[in-house]
Design goal:
The structure is a homotetramer. By secondary structure, chain A is of the alpha+beta class. The first copy, chain A, has helices at about 5-15, 20, 55-75, and strands spanning about 25-30, 35-40, 80-90, 100-105, 110-120, 130-135. Chain A contains three helices and six strands; from the N terminus they run ααββαββββ. The termini of chain A are close together. The interface of A and B includes residues 56 and 59 of A. Chains A, B, C, D: It comes from Oceaniovalibus guishaninsula JLT2003. Chains A, B, C, D: InterPro entries: HotDog_dom_sf, PAAI_dom, Thioestr_dom.
Chain lengths: ~140, ~140, ~140, ~140
């Protein structure tokens, strides 16, 4: 499988297009199998009691699939989420970073579907799982 | 149907338990049929281009069902989201507030299920829909 | 809102295209607001103990949204389900028919999204809820 | 991880509890990592044109997670599906059998969550993915 963007290209894209959140995310790996992105958890992501908030976990799953799509088709800023189903399964460890592992299951002409597992540093079992569908603009560059 | 908390009680609870986000939300209505909560959209909720971000819409749907549950069973801070399925259907209007209308479909001993429609001020059709499941701690006060 | 097919036209379409299941379903109502379809529950739909099976409820929700789309755009046999999220909330009454009430929330150029509530005859509260996304072939007749 | 039931025990359970569908399913593998179950596709599972129907794929995903739970906790006939989110991604090959690979992500005291991939014999890419939540009766035997 040919990748259109590597870790460095995705990081640059994120900083350029999403400057307000880019510092939170570090892209650790992208290849034909999976994309791994880490969220540096800080106070703004926490609920009272120290748990990472649901919207934070949603945002991490969402960006992970978005980046996994871009890694394959190149910088298409207009790809948009149409559906997400997310299961919150365990409480993340207080203060620990989160790691998303995203796998694309379908990359079609107009729709892409992927699965994400979220892990909390120091816990073996996943804290959340999500599946997302993205709609891809018709005039995007062809998939390589 | 007896309600355990009204708009004022829910607003006070939100300010007390979630001070970092309480100012964003205004509870407009709660009764046996639905709970309506408004999000005052500001820069921090926007993506480049002026669209409200997906995590913001997720957060609004999530808080709407949470408040709809509390309105029925009283202040149970430990109720947690276990699943959310959300469909993003239309682009919200730039800068317009969002309004969530939440309906509880089930309020069981351990699980609650509800549906939410999100509307963007000035648009007739909903911009998103979501369904959420909450897990309710076993030692909560009995449902009235 | 102009409807492309009424109850009689939808019933004829179902008998023509899906003869193996058409006898199970009766279309009770279709208008701009909702489509209601009834499933005549028989032994083949039941699990041991007399409960309607999950796949049966899925099938009813699926056909209800499909028919709600056709009611609006006309007979497009190739519309296909791309996503369904379904919550099973209560046990249906033994032997009672099921009734699906489907509402379209979006009818776009390529995607349609709808919500369904399933009721068991004799129970006030819904037994299940579902949301579905359909992909619509590009060469379909224009929406009227 | 200790398994409570192996392929033979699960097969016997299925024949005993679900005699009307047991012949359709063959349990190929169960271990600590995944459970694989095959559906022998026949005419009753097909839509006009020869595609496997959506309810059939839902049923296969549902039974796969159910069996994956029983493999771990033993014969608990009363475990019930509370939520399923399923994405239909590709058309199965006409007449080909389907294979479900189910992985449990959480096996809690009252809820279990799992992911399933469905493959059509002869196609490398999955035809569908699903995630399911089961509610487990409180008086079940303890998880080993």
């Amino acid at each position: 499988m040919t990748m259109a963007m590597d870790e460095a290209a995705l990081t640059a894209f994120l900083r350029d297009q999403f400057p307000q959140v880019a510092d939170d995310f570090a892209i650790e790996r992208t290849d034909g199998e999976a994309l791994v992105v880490r969220l540096a958890v800080s106070d703004k992501h926490l609920r009272p009691g120290g748990t990472v908030s649901g919207p934070t976990m949603f945002a991490l799953a969402d960006v992970a699939i978005y980046l996994a799509i871009l890694a394959r088709i190149g910088p298409v800023a207009l790809a948009v989420t149409t559906n997400c189903s997310i299961d919150f399964m365990r409480k993340p460890r207080n203060g620990a970073d989160l790691r998303a592992t995203a796998r694309l299951l379908k990359l079609g002409r107009v729709l892409a579907v992927g699965d994400v597992l979220l892990h909390s540093d120091g816990l073996a079992d996943p804290v959340a799982r999500a599946s997302l569908t993205y709609s891809i603009p018709a005039d995007r560059p062809a998939v390589r």
